[in-house]
Amino acid sequence: MQALQLFGDRDLRLTDVEPPPAPGPGEVQIRVRAVGLNFIDVWGFRGMAFAKRKLPLAVGAEAAGEIAAVGEGVEGLSVGDAVVPYGALTCGKCRACREGRDNLCEDVSGVMGFHLDGFARERVNLPARLVVRVPGGVDHVQAACAGIAFGTVQHMLFDNARLEPGESILVQAGGSGIGTAAIKMAKAIGCTVYTTVGDDAKGEKAKALGADHVINYREERFEGEVRRLTKRKGVDVVFEHVGPETWNGSLLCLKPGGRLVTCGSTSGVSVQMNLMQLFQQQYRITGSFGCRIANMSQSLDKMAAGLTPVVDTVLPLADFAQGLERLESRKVFGKIIVTL
Fold this sequence. Notes:
By secondary structure, the protein is an alpha/beta fold. Helices cover 28% and strands 26% of the residues. The strands form three sheets. Strands 3, 5, 6, 7, 8, 15 and 16 form a seven-stranded mixed β-sheet that branches. A six-stranded parallel β-sheet has the order 11-10-9-12-13-14, with helices on both faces. Strands 2-1-4 form a three-stranded antiparallel β-sheet, with no helix packed on it. Helix 1 packs across helix 11 (320-329). The N and C termini lie close together (11 Å). 47% of the residues are buried. This is 2-haloacrylate reductase.
């Protein structure tokens, strides 16, 4: 079968590899149909953590496909079912896993496509407990956004930030895959949405998604604009995933008692911040990594109800590297999907 493997820094090759064996007890075999691209793929492409993983490595952390075979003892899944796999190989036994807090697994083996062979290959065997069935009306391209993009946003906004109907929210980098999802999910519950973008073309697209106020951060200081637009009150929630470039400005956009939730650090990993501001304004800052398996199901249900992901580009598997380059360039608006 074909697989897209990483052999070294920016060295991706489409290769022929041995297909997996028949699924064992409790496992299913997935025929992969689509893979979603994310910044974790860019980090891996650049060579992050090479010392901790064995190369060559099949890439791809987010995917959708269909059941090709079912192992002994598997219930609730049948050959032909459309499914989405979870992007990490969790233990399924620790307290966090038993309580449905999968992204806090105490004995996780790693992230697919980063530490372990990922989904950019024709067939993959996984424990059935890590697979979610896709509801009718959701195609493979849309479903390939559930494992990380939609799932991450669902976890950030509703598990962690506890976003409520009618609140105000600043979505940083509104043109990204998770930014577009955050705009749509927040508007769906009646929130007032402020968002930042890098150019006016993206701004028009963000408005079309429902953003109430769009700020071109290359032309205006976003924190000043948010303070002006809110009459210096600030917003209830900031959806942060950029890092040092926006961190302190994001804090300035919060109202007293506001909540900042972050899942990314694309502009760097370290920041300096004003601790007096933090405790005097009683900000609540929450880190958010990936999602729970339940968040994938919630995301797919939203897609089935009409809240679909924004897709920037669909490419064949052989053009995976081209998709990563587009993602890295920040020219993207929405998700990039590669199909098998």
